[in-house]
Specification:
Two copies of one chain form a homodimer. Chain A contains twelve helices and 13 strands.
Chain lengths: ~325, ~325
């Protein structure tokens, strides 16, 4: 009989969830299953997970609490990497996790360090879930990862890294000197595997990082490795604020429009990272986060330099499978 | 020139504030001043503080941020023991404290251990202020104290402790077995004086306690010390919930009525303490609180037994100066 911890992962086909699934399987110390909606079972991305030998548990988060509790039977650790538009659907999952005796719930965090309330809509909705968890005294760990290497590089005049860029750009925000916590998306799952097996992280917030870099430092690395000179576009603090306010106004007129929500997320990320300069270790420590690199000094993350070297070698991949 | 830390206390004439003022003055290691509203300067309670040699700083919290910043000049530690109806007025104080370079802000907490959001209106409004603090990266310490000895004793058939009872009663809630964190109100200031001089409590939550007792344990102590048999009134979980829901409904119809707010506070306290059973060390630890008794093992708090012995000796005092 297996004595491995049984881990159930929700959102395994997403960008963050895929990394977590890989990390859990590679760790070879968990019994891993994935939670999928009935409507998603036949999707190729889900079938592909199944073909890797990962058992599926099938349930809608809108199911009755009884059904959800039954779906969670035997699970020790529940990890949610649900999509940004569905965060509040975790409420029923939190209640079911409490009833099912889940030993650790990892809610969908996996973003930058930001104030708990009032700066980023995406963070505010996560806070609602964290408060639900705390109200139920459900054991938890919040894992934030900063911004990904994969969406933190400028494009080159030659165009040779455009293939891996979500939105090709060469923008410097403000003076380009705000330090930011960066994690390679492939490292998220490797970090998560360590964190969920660690008693020290129970009922704690943890942040991961591969590098702490400013945009100017990123430019230096990119120019050095590529031998090209990046054509900088500067965006001022005032322009950043204006774009964010416009996005917020637009969403307030049509709050159900996913495209408008995404624009709010994106512009608020930029405001938080470069104007408020939230996404850095000092603020994480102030907010009570543990530093995953201090917890796991032997962990070798993928540095931005290694990541960009791979990009130049044509080994990059555009995030979100696009 | 003094090298003492300069402490400014808001709400020094209140029940909690008076204890804090006494504790700060007795500690003899701080330069203490109090912050009062212009309209309060001539009140006897304020003049009495002045007559103890404590300097007054006079400002309305509704003043401009510039004026507030100027009022806070030279202050190292700012402690707020503002009244429960005015909690949100601390928003401007938080912003001014950041601008004035306050080294530690102690917002008005000083209540029971409770969920950050959704269980107690009083706690919810404090959370808004904590989030404002965190958004500004203002150094802070939250100090919660559980419930006071002074409002946690049952009355005796002889009536001899009624003189010190806020609301004489002999009610047992539920089965009377919920443990509760209790602090003698006179110890709050003594604890606060230790906590604000301690680097370990910076940007942390701390709870104080003199005793951890259930209502049944309190009854045992009271009956043993008095030699009287308390006539128990039992209130069921359902009755507690009904009273709370009625109070909430009543407030929702007239949200500005202070008496209705107080009834919501009182009934939600009872629900949180005895139905949810939030106010205990296990939940405090889960929520990330430090235990003041672990931090200060030499601290001798006033036990409930000592407190009730004083009551029987006629040395008690009704809280809130009534």
């Amino acid at each position: 009989m297996s004595t491995k911890q049984k881990v159930l992962l929700l959102g395994a086909t997403g960008a963050t969830g895929s990394s977590i699934l890989d990390g859990l399987l590679d760790a070879n110390q968990f019994d891993v299953e994935v939670l999928v909606r009935p409507s998603s079972v036949e999707k190729p991305s889900v079938q592909q997970i199944k073909s890797r030998g990962v058992p599926l548990r099938v349930s809608d988060l809108s199911a009755s609490e009884n059904e959800l509790v039954s779906t969670l039977q035997g699970i020790d650790i529940l990890i949610s990497a649900i999509g940004p538009h569905d965060l509040l659907q975790q409420k029923s999952l939190v209640r079911a996790a409490k009833s099912a005796g889940i030993k650790r719930f990892v809610p969908c965090a996996f973003i930058t360090i930001a104030p708990p309330q009032g700066t980023m809509l995406l963070r505010d909705e996560k806070e609602i879930i964290y408060n639900e968890i705390k109200s139920l005294e459900l054991p938890y760990t919040v894992v934030d990862v900063g911004f990904w290497h994969q969406i933190s590089f400028p494009c080159l005049p030659s165009g040779r890294v455009d293939y891996a860029a979500l939105v090709p750009n060469t923008t410097i925000h403000g003076d380009g000197n705000a330090p930011n916590i960066l994690t390679d998306i492939r490292d998220i799952g490797r970090f998560v595997s360590r964190i969920i097996a660690d008693d020290r992280t129970l009922n704690k917030y943890v942040y991961t990082w591969g590098d702490i870099l400013t945009e100017n430092e990123i430019l230096d690395i990119v120019e050095e490795l590529s031998g090209e000179k990046v054509q900088r576009q500067y965006e001022t603090i005032e322009e950043i604020e204006k774009k964010m306010e416009d996005a917020q106004s637009s969403l307030s007129l049509d709050s159900a429009d996913p495209a408008k929500r995404i624009l709010v997320y994106v512009t608020q990320y930029i405001y938080s990272k470069y104007v408020r300069q939230d996404n850095q270790p000092r603020y994480a420590e102030y907010l009570g986060y543990l530093d995953a690199r201090e917890l796991y000094p032997d962990f070798k993350p993928i540095s931005f330099r290694e990541f960009f070297t791979e990009l130049l070698d044509g080994k990059g991949k555009r995030p979100y499978g696009q």
